[in-house]
Design brief:
Strands 1-2-4-3-5-6-7-8 form an eight-stranded mixed sheet, sandwiched between helices. It contains eleven helices and eight strands. Helix 1 crosses helix 2 and helix 4 runs antiparallel to helix 6. By secondary structure, it is of the alpha/beta class. The protein is 38% helix and 17% strand.
Length: 281
């Protein structure tokens, strides 16, 4: 990986946005998931694609180090407007967007609003592009988080003495058990950098999108180079990602034995696919 990490805060549309850059070469904008999360749970895995290019991360308004007051709107369109304002600040005529999970949906929303400003789309474990598909994903995730093995592990953690003897280790273990359902191999959830969701932001984004959105008819009218990466064991059904890829006429990369977090469970395939697709010096 080339280049030092650089961090700064931008003033955008009356909000302070935290930004992190790493690498040298053509700029690629990375959109984290959530909604209401922050960029650093993508690390260190996403940094594996910073060789020969500059990755530009930022915490979306209402999450991480881009905090806002409770009276500040944080819905989906506010996130789209922020990205367009940042593009102007960054002086990019066009952006190469890499979106993860909800960030992939944000990339799609931005592309529909500003198609001429998008040079390419890389969608990693994309959230469903149609509201009707969310219920199936949520039911699958709930079932995976309720297995006997996970229930037993949570009960053992609560019954043990770790909370008193090592609160940090207890918090880390509790987090890894909470996100285990996202993984093909639940034991690898311990490798995910812990993060927090700002509930108000998460709720505001989904509420603002409504209960009947379907982006695919509009996506099918775009002409933007695109690639979609999705694990074959993601709780977000593979078929939803395939439908999004078909709408965009995008390359579809299916990652075997992989859940929702390919930058951990399929690091080399993740890196190789994006490295050949994204611009580099």
């Amino acid at each position: 990986m080339n280049g030092e990490e650089r961090t700064l805060t931008r003033q955008v549309r009356g909000v302070e946005i935290f930004e992190r850059r790493i690498g040298t070469g053509p700029e690629v904008v990375v959109l984290h998931g959530g909604p209401g999360a922050h960029h650093d749970y993508l690390l260190p895995g996403f940094d594996s694609i910073a060789t020969g290019r500059t990755l530009v991360y930022y915490d979306q308004r209402g999450g991480g180090r881009s905090t806002v007051g409770r009276d500040v709107p944080v819905g989906a369109q506010e996130q789209v407007h922020d990205l367009e304002a940042l593009r102007d600040v960054w002086q990019m005529q066009q952006m190469h967007l890499v979106g993860y999970s909800w960030g992939a949906l944000l990339a799609m929303l931005y592309s529909l609003a500003h198609p001429s400003r998008v040079a390419s789309l890389s969608l990693v474990s994309p959230a469903p592009a149609a509201a009707s598909e969310r219920a199936g994903y949520e039911a699958t995730l709930a079932a995976r988080n309720s297995t006997d093995a996970l229930k037993s592990a949570r009960a053992a953690l609560q019954a043990g003495d770790l909370r008193r003897t090592d609160p940090d280790a207890y918090a880390s273990k509790l987090f890894s058990l909470a996100v285990a359902g996202y993984f093909h191999n639940p034991s690898r959830s311990a490798e995910l950098t812990p993060f927090r969701i700002t509930g108000r932001t998460q709720q505001a984004v989904w509420d603002s999108l409504g209960t009947d959105y379907d982006l695919r008819p509009a996506l099918s009218r775009l002409s933007i180079p695109a690639i979609v990466l999705h694990g074959d064991d993601d709780p977000i059904p593979l078929a939803t990602a395939q439908a999004t890829a078909a709408a965009l006429k995008a390359e579809m990369v299916v990652l075997p034995d992989c859940g929702h977090v390919p930058y951990i469970e399929a690091r080399e395939q993740f890196r190789a696919a994006l490295d050949r697709f994204l611009p580099h010096s």
